[in-house]
Amino acid sequence: MKLNSQLRVLGIAAILMASAAAHAAPTCTTVGSSGSVGFTMAVASNFYAPAISLATPYANSQGYKIQICQDSSGNLYNSIVPSNSPQYAIFMSADTTRPANLSSSYPTLVAAGPTNYAKGIPAFLLSPNAYSATSGTYRAVNYLTTGLAAGAGANGVRSTSSLPAVSNRVKLKRSPSTPAVSTLAIGDTGLAPYGLAAAWIMGSTIGGANPPTAAFSDNMNQWNTSNVYSATTNVSATCSSMVSGSQWICSYSNIDYTLQAITNNKATAGFVSYAQVCPTWAGSTYQVDQYVLFPDYNTTQSYVQLNVTDSTAQSRAGAFLSYLAIGTSTWNTWLSSNCYKSL
């Protein structure tokens, strides 16, 4: 039972009605060298760079532009449902729950799908300051207690075979351990599926007791909702200046803000998507020993094609999805080569 099944345990209403307070507008970019915008698509933050890469050559070949907007899956969902006439022709979520709920509860909004398109991998990432403050052949592992027995830690693995293997299960080092993860950044568990994955890795029992599976019963035993401060979109303040009492975790309204907080040294470390930090999409921004992967806690990602009033945009969106050949061996090869697990 993976993350998406657990989302259903929470109850659709609980997970889909997260607060929109302090929610900034989605970040959008337009790709294509000529023409007007042919259609607009909404993608979960972890898939923003891949979507741009996939859509750009296609748009260039078609003679029109494609607008791509990113935010957390929850925020995008909440912008689709109230409108009852989506501005987005495609919605690529970071989970399966929201596309499935659109199909079952708002069938008139859905033209096709839901269809699974990827399996995302959570990653523990050190901030630049934390990375530079330590040394060794695998610096991120210095911030983890390793070699733990089953049930005493999460299943972390190395980011590349050139690095030393991560021994057995791991958990975050907390004070007084040195070096320590004094503050942690994650996505909002009610809006960002990668935030919920981070909570499960740390030992969340959201929705009930841990399910009887190896992945989720093997966790860090370090989760407590009273330790979490909702930083929403505030990536300019340090997490340590916002938390109080027992709090040491700052949650952000999407996984892009989470990455910004880590990259800008607003937290010691955090959990993001592998696709955001791997060399394919991030270049040399992040060192391979700056992060540890948690592929056992992958979240299946699903999309739906939505009905829009512009029939031309509708047709173009469908043609683009056909072009991607999602679910074929070619697509699975692309996933494996671009920091996702194949379907």
Give me some keywords for this one.
D-Maltodextrin-Binding Protein, domain 2, single chain, signal, disordered N terminus, 2 domains, 343 residues, six-stranded mixed sheet, Substrate-binding domain-containing protein, 31% helix, alpha/beta
Describe the structure in your own words.
The chain has a six-stranded mixed β-sheet. A six-stranded mixed β-sheet has the order 10-11-9-12-6-13, sandwiched between helices. The chain has 343 residues and is an alpha/beta fold. The chain is 31% helix and 22% strand. The protein is built from 14 helices and 14 strands. α3 (48-62) links the parallel β2 (37-44) and β3. The chain has two domains: 3-120 and 301-337, D-Maltodextrin-Binding Protein, domain 2; 122-297, no CATH class. This is Substrate-binding domain-containing protein. Pfam families: SBP_bac_11 (PF13531). Keywords: Signal. Residues 1-24 form the signal peptide.
What's this model, at a glance?
This protein has 343 residues and is α/β, with parallel strands linked by helices.
Number of domains: 2
Task: Give the biggest beta sheet.
Answer: 6 strands, mixed
- Sketch the topology as an H/E string, one letter per element: HHEEHEHEHEEHEEEHHEHEHEHHEEHH
> What integer is the average pLDDT?
89
Strand order of the largest sheet: 1-3-2-4-14-5
Runs in which pLDDT lies below 50 for 5 or more consecutive residues are 1-22, 208-212
Global Rg:
20 Å
N-to-C CA distance: 15 Å
What overall form do the CA principal axes indicate?
globular
How many E-type strands?
14
> How many helical stretches?
14
Instruction: Describe the oligomeric state of these chains in a short phrase.
Output: single chain
Task: Kindly name the structural category.
Answer: alpha/beta
Assess the beta-strand content as a share of residues: 15-25%
- Helix percent band: 25-40%
Pfam families: SBP_bac_11
Organism: Derxia gummosa DSM 723
Signal peptide: 1-24
Keywords: Signal
